[in-house]
Write a structure and sequence with these properties.
Layout lengths: L4 E5 L4 H12 L4 E5 L2 H5 L6 E5 L5 H15 L2 E6 L14 H29 L3 E5 L12 H21 L5 E7 L2 E2 L9 H13 L4 E2 H13 L8 E4 L7
Parallel strand pairs: 1-2, 1-4, 2-3, 4-5, 5-6, 6-9, 7-8
Helix pairs in contact: 1-7, 3-4, 4-5
Bound molecules: NADPH dihydro-nicotinamide-adenine-dinucleotide phosphate.
């Protein structure tokens, strides 16, 4: 095995799945983590260890990482991607959806970072790609807690970047606009969903997750002394 190990959270669909395919095509062994094990196994990517992991479970992440590193050596890149989008009118939204968003998009991001901060620092190399959103840069209607969670990802990325930069570790944050995935499948507010879908038609549809994956692979493949700190990608016709 010549190429280093890549770890991806939320690898069972959408952008995580597309990124798994892209890194696999580039010859990397993979640690794939998500709750739907069947979806990751169905990808049938060579040299991939698929682990049923909920990012709310810090211990499960650590175990999966240790198992993969036993076989493939240290993780050189974490794609910290798992996330949900429970968009809704904040005045009507069930606070349980706030809890879920905070637990997965905020605490889950920290849980996934945890095994790598010191190990990459000690090895004096590594790349962390944190998944934010265009909603981590500006606010949108009905995105209240989601925006909060992605603004959090931006703040943490900047802070961890400053912390790890002296140790030659790169921290990248990627902020996509409308990408065609399953992320809106669990939105329960019909008005929010209607408005989102109308806007999507208005802008000519979302773009493919494979474009986001290609960008992540490109940034990773830059030499270790080159850091693309932030990437923002939207459909061309997405005005806001
Ligand atoms: P998908 O719904 O297709 O993918 C989300 C992934 O996250 C799935 O693999 C899912 O796996 C995983 N996931 C969700 N909750 C958990 C959990 N508790 N533990 C482990 N894995 C979890 O949507 P996307 O690909 O679009 O989403 C990926 C990321 O991209 C998210 O962070 C999202 O916020 C972000 N994003 C998406 C945009 C878009 O337009 N699509 C735009 C901007 C950002 P499983 O359910 O099997 O656990």
């Amino acid at each position: 095995m010549t190429k280093p190990l890549i770890a991806i959270t939320g690898a069972s669909s959408g952008i995580g799945e597309a990124t798994a395919r892209a890194f696999s095509s580039a010859g990397h062994p993979l640690l794939l983590m998500a709750r739907r094990l069947d979806r990751m196994e169905a990808l049938q990517l060579p040299n991939s260890l698929c682990q049923q992991v909920d990012v709310r479970d810090r211990e499960a992440i650590a175990k999966a990482v240790a198992l993969a590193e036993d076989t493939y050596g240290p993780v050189d890149c974490l794609f910290n991607n798992a996330g949900i989008a429970r968009l809704a009118d904040i005045g009507k939204q069930d606070p349980l959806e706030w809890d879920e968003t905070v637990d997965i998009n905020i605490k889950g991001v920290m849980n996934a970072l945890h095994p790598f901060i010191n190990s990459m620092k000690e090895r004096k190399t590594g790349t962390i790609v944190n998944m934010s959103s265009i909603a981590g840069r500006k606010i949108y209607p009905d995105h209240t807690v989601y925006c909060g969670s992605k603004f959090f990802v931006h703040a943490v990325s900047e802070s961890i970047r400053a912390y790890l930069a002296p140790h030659n570790v790169r921290v990248i944050v990627i902020s996509p606009g409308v990408i065609e995935t399953e992320v809106l499948d669990h939105v329960t507010d019909p008005n929010t969903l209607k408005a989102y879908k109308e806007n999507k038609v208005h802008i000519g549809g979302g773009i493919s997750a494979s474009h986001v994956a290609d960008m992540i692979l490109f940034a990773y493949q830059m030499p270790q002394n080159v850091l693309i700190q932030e990437m923002v990608v939207t459909p061309t016709r997405q005005e806001f």
